[in-house]
Design brief:
The protein has 831 residues and is α+β, with helices and mostly antiparallel strands. The chain is built from ten helices and 52 strands. The longest helix is centred in the first third of the chain and has 16 residues.
Length: 831
């Protein structure tokens, strides 16, 4: 049936001259016209590419079949090659899976693989490449190279059970290249027409009593192939993949990129300059020139702001083979082609009391575990969303653990020893904040909104502990936790599996450890101690009867670095979001005492032990700030609150440490929608000295015009979180619901963003808040804006806060969890 139906459709195309067919391929056809030509294939195992989604097979398929096409144009005489991804390094070691006899596409662009290959053992990630062939011009195009990511090949078996149909086109190429870009070798003469994909198999041990060794490179590679299948249905070539209704990719962006590649694919390089034009626009200055369309695609993915207008102009002005597409560059919404990053929104659902409910629900905190699984803390904002809870998603955005709303707190670990009357140990998740993963792959969630009942003192907070995940796609459901100080918000876990908790509640006699930083073992919650000032640290021997002084401001976020001068666990940096200050918490090498770096005395400007005033740099002035009436701000005179950068740091919130042990800091402006400043502090020495600082504004941002009570009244935006990828770049949620990438070039901060009125990369965001990088180089970003909406794969309008947004393959892969990266001294570096 397949041959008969295609013969009829192909006869229609052959009745048109070769030149006319090329023009049609470049101009594109409407969905109705495409269905008229190819519609008879749907139901016979082959779907319609790009614009029409895909079909359903009505008869049993006995062979793995495929087709290669450029736009709607079948590619005749293309060489088909199967590759198995390598395991010896990034972009190296990919091996050919022998096809015997060799496979070349027939006069209709179709091919068959069954019986012509053997899958590698053990199972390997497989991708397929089509090179050369006649795209309808009457001659072969030597610059034509298209690919599709197939996923794991069954050991000793064949692909019939997993991918019985394979569609290779510009759309499948975009999906494969963008998902796998961090694992592909850079273009070179040696890999023209033969893209090399691979990952390192280096193992990293968590060093626990019963150690587990993880291979994040291989995990990231495997998960990247899965992500490719979220962008396109490999069988039909359609985007979105309608088999995964909870995943909504940037369909118009994918089609736009595919149409750009079609400019070269559907041309004759002997008579046109279309391929050479594309390669020139795609290739960065000083790089090896692209010589095929896969190489061009890789350069476009890796350089998302390069020659955007030129690339867009390659789309045929009359039409395009893949529809819909984006508008021309220059707009400020997701409808415009301002950059080449590709996103997906994952909005899995579950049944709650018989009602379909979003499992992601105004999530704030996010963290990635050793298998690339994603833990989220839901704050229950959007309509139809889960209640306050903790949930886990797989690398494909699927729901692994349905939202958990309660846990049991330990009566012995954490701060429990400070109570004279034991509180109730059954706790409810309430306004969860920062999420961290320990070396045992357990998720720790700061339960900010919880407070004890029945205990003495009356008010303290809790952290929940969930999991662990015990394998890829397999998660435990244990829900335990610990009592800590009042209002826990920030958390960090170091390479020795100590967990630090920032308690931000105002100090009072009736609360436990307000405005303090607590420390305990992530193994069992033992060794709780807390510090409210100084380097000595305060031993938890009982609650003081008088109101404690506490740290100035609400200590919201903290991170750990790998500074060798900081001893076994380096420095723990703490941000004070109301004191306009940043302090570093120094953990001495041999003991449990720890204190605040750069915390000054109340009466003079002399730094405490292991502390020094930061040297001012261009764009920032370092000085000691002050506060009044117990509410620290930037303009009072009562007491000193630490080192301050007048041009940049007001309400510092996001923090992350790079491979140089320097600290990145973003600001949160409460009255705006995007972020304004970002500050970088050089790695401190053994005395606590910060050698330099630098500061920059985001593109399009403006500084505050006035300050009242320490809060800027006119600002540009907020940066709620910060993450460092494996290429040592900083990623920041930014204004206009977008994303910014920043680099440190010497002592200067530069941004990679679209050259439009938009602040950064635009996707389906709604107040993007927290973000994390996974082992595949994907950026996972939570959406805190309850009013934002987007249209999902099924055409439904759903709340963006009911999803998590993933920017595919744009970042350098990292070791996850972050604690394992610290353990391995690999911050800001690839596995």
């Amino acid at each position: 049936m397949l041959t008969t139906h295609f013969a009829n459709a192909y006869h229609q195309l052959n009745s048109i001259s070769a030149k006319k067919r090329t023009d049609l391929a470049l101009r594109g056809l409407s969905s109705a016209a495409l269905l008229a030509v190819f519609g008879s294939l749907v139901g016979c195992g082959m779907g319609v590419s790009g614009v029409a989604g895909g079909g359903t097979s009505l008869v049993p398929q006995v062979a793995t079949q495929g087709r290669v096409h450029g736009g709607i144009q079948p590619i005749v005489g293309a060489t088909i090659t199967l590759y198995a991804a390598g395991t010896s390094g990034y972009g190296s070691g990919a091996s050919v899976v022998a096809l015997s006899p060799s496979v070349v596409t027939g006069p209709n662009g179709f091919f068959s693989l069954t019986g012509k290959y053997t899958c590698p053992t053990p199972s390997a990630e497989i991708y397929i490449v089509a090179t050369g062939g006649d795209p309808g011009t009457g001659v072969a195009n030597p610059n034509l190279a298209l690919m599709s990511a197939l996923g794991p090949c069954p050991a000793g078996g064949n692909l019939l059970a997993t991918v019985p149909q394979i569609d290779i086109s510009e759309v499948s190429t975009v999906a494969a290249v963008w998902a796998l870009q961090q694992f592909m070798a850079a273009p070179a003469v040696g890999n023209a027409g033969a893209p090399s994909v691979g990952a390192p198999s280096t193992g990293y041990s968590n060093g626990l009593t019963s150690p587990t060794t993880y291979t994040p490179g291989i995990t990231g590679l495997k998960n990247a192939f899965t992500t490719a299948s979220m962008l396109v249905d490999v069988g039909t070539g359609g985007t979105p993949n309608t088999k995964v209704p909870y995943a909504t990719p940037d369909v118009a962006k994918i089609n736009t990129l595919a149409d750009i590649l079609a400019y070269c694919v559907n041309s004759d390089p002997g008579t046109t300059t279309q391929c050479s034009d594309l390669f020139a626009a795609a290739t960065p200055s000083g790089s090896a020139p692209a010589t095929d369309t896969i190489q061009a695609a890789w350069y476009i993915a890796q350089n998302p702001t390069q020659n955007i207008a030129t690339l867009y102009n390659f789309i045929h002005p009359i039409g395009a083979p893949y529809l819909p597409i984006l508008n021309a560059p220059g707009g400020t919404t997701t409808a415009s082609f301002n950059d080449t990053t590709v996103g997906i929104n994952y909005a899995p659902t579950y049944s709650l009391s018989g009602t379909s409910t979003y499992a992601v629900s105004g999530a704030y905190g996010i963290a990635i575990d050793a298998y690339g699984n994603v833990w989220l803390g839901n704050s229950a904002q959007p309509t139809g969303g889960a209640p306050n809870s903790v949930t886990e998603l797989g690398p494909d955005g699927s729901l692994l653990v349905a939202p958990i709303t309660t846990f049991t707190a330990s009566s012995t670990g954490g701060s429990a020893g400070q109570f004279t009357v034991a509180p109730t140990t059954t706790r409810t998740i309430n306004t969860p904040r920062v999420v961290s993963i320990d070396l045992a792959n357990q998720a720790w969630v700061a339960n900010y909104g919880d407070s004890t009942s029945g205990g003495t003192p009356a008010t303290a907070g809790t952290v929940g502990v969930f999991g662990p995940s015990t394998g890829a796609g397999v998660a435990g459901t244990g829900a335990t936790g610990y009592f800590v100080g009042y209002r826990p918000w920030g958390m960090a876990i170091d390479g020795s599996n100590n967990i630090y908790v920032a308690n931000v509640g105002a100090p009072a006699a009736a609360v436990l450890d307000g405005r303090s930083v607590g420390k305990m073992s992530a193994t069992n919650g033992s060794g709780w101690s807390y510090s409210t000032s100084g380097l000595a640290g305060q031993t938890a021997t009982g609650k003081v009867s008088s109101t404690p002084t506490g740290l100035p401001g609400a200590q919201a976020v903290l991170v750990v670095d790998n500074n060798p001068n900081g001893g076994a666990n380096g420095f723990v940096w703490v941000a004070s979001d109301t004191a306009c200050s940043v302090q570093g918490n120094y953990n001495v090498a041999a003991g449990t005492n720890f204190g605040m770096l750069n915390l000054y005395t109340a009466n003079n400007l002399t730094a405490t032990t292991n502390s020094t005033l930061t040297t001012a740099a261009t764009g920032s002035d370092a000085f000691v700030g002050t506060g009044t009436s117990g509410t620290p701000d930037c303009g009072g005179t009562t007491y000193k609150v630490g080192q301050i950068f007048t041009a940049s740091m007001s309400n510092p919130t996001g923090m992350a440490v790079d491979r140089n042990n320097g600290l990145w800091i973003t600001d949160w402006w409460f009255s705006s929608t995007g972020f304004d400043g970002v500050t970088y502090l050089g790695a401190p020495t053994g005395t606590g000295s910060v050698p330099f600082s630098t500061y920059a504004l985001a593109p399009g941002a403006t500084e505050p015009t006035s300050t009242t009570g320490g809060v800027a009244s006119t600002v540009d935006g907020h940066g709620a979180a910060l993450a460092i990828d494996g290429n040592n770049a900083a990623w920041i949620p930014a204004g206009s619901n977008s994303l910014v990438k920043a680099f440190l070039d010497g002592s200067n901060i530069t941004f990679q963003t679209p050259t439009t009125a938009a602040v950064g990369y635009l996707h389906n965001f709604a107040s993007p808040t927290a973000l994390a990088v996974d082992p595949s180089g994907n950026l996972w970003i939570t959406n805190d804006g309850v009013s934002g909406l987007y249209t999902n794969t099924l055409g439904q309008s759903i709340p963006t806060a009911g999803s998590v947004t993933v920017v595919v393959g744009a970042a350098g892969p990292v070791i996850t969890p972050l604690s394992l990266s610290l353990k391995s001294s690999r911050l800001g570096q690839k596995p």
